[in-house]
Design goal:
It is a single chain. The protein is of the alpha+beta class and 225 residues long. It has one domain: NADH Oxidase, CATH 3.40.109.10. It is built from eight helices and four strands. Strands 1-2-4-3 form a four-stranded antiparallel beta sheet. Helix 2 runs antiparallel to helix 6. The longest helix is centred in the middle third of the chain and has 22 residues. It is globular, with a radius of gyration of 20 Å. The relative contact order is 0.20.
């Protein structure tokens, strides 16, 4: 085990007044509260540099021992998108055809989802987030740690960054997702974590009229406030 200590640098931290803190927290919540999962995409291309900066933002996520166990694959090639759609729909037909428990299907039915996934081809870009389950052999390590937690945090930050940039997304997990590793020729130490169609909503796009749980239903506070 190495005894070397990582060099440290002064923290770049900005402290705000309480008034500005409240305003920033409130406006950020309001921005994210507008985010919705979209299944109807315009085929209009999106700026590649916008996606790249959103990936950079996702890459700032905390990770176990700073191992950063993620890899982002961006797909804009129409033929690759077609292959991914065909493979995803094949898995989804099996899922909706009996592999998923009936109560799960019942919960999805009001949302209008089924085995057909045209958004995979319609969206101008797909981002496939891969979890790097084991390090490269040359690293000398046997495994990565806190992979699921780290990649989950990075994915959440990516979705928030894409929304803030003005792009719509959909979190799609056509389980099992081994076909993504095969189609995109990723190494065996990686596993697909989520598939994100990314782009502008189609004209006239509609989404289910849903309500999010109230703060009191999803949080508990101990101590003075």
């Amino acid at each position: 085990m190495s005894d070397e200590t990582q060099p440290h640098v002064p923290l770049d931290f900005r402290r705000y007044s309480e008034e500005e803190m409240r305003e920033r927290a409130s406006s950020f919540y309001a921005e994210l509260d507008r985010r919705r999962s979209v299944r109807e995409f315009s085929s209009e291309p999106v700026p590649h540099e916008v996606i790249e900066d959103c990936l950079r933002a996702a890459g700032t996520a905390p990770s176990g021992a700073h191992l950063q166990p993620w890899h982002f694959v961006v797909v804009t090639d129409p033929e690759l998108k077609r292959k991914i759609r065909e493979a995803a729909e094949e898995e989804e037909r099996r899922n909706y055809g009996g592999r998923m428990p009936e109560d799960w299907v019942d919960l999805l039915r009001p949302l209008g989802t089924d085995a057909n996934k045209p958004h995979i081809e319609d969206a101008p870009a797909l981002i496939v987030v891969f979890a790097v389950r084991a390090p490269a052999p040359e690293s000398g390590r046997r495994r990565n740690y806190y992979v699921t937690e780290s990649v989950g945090i990075a994915t959440g930050m990516l979705i928030a960054a894409l929304h803030r940039a003005g792009l719509a997304t959909l979190t799609h997990t056509p389980n099992p997702m081994n076909f993504l590793r095969e189609i995109l020729e990723r190494p065996k130490n990686e596993s697909a974590f989520v598939l994100l169609p990314v782009g502008y909503p189609a004209e006239g796009c509609e989404v289910p009229d849903l309500e999010r749980k109230a703060l009191a239903d999803v949080s508990t506070w101990f101590g003075p406030r």
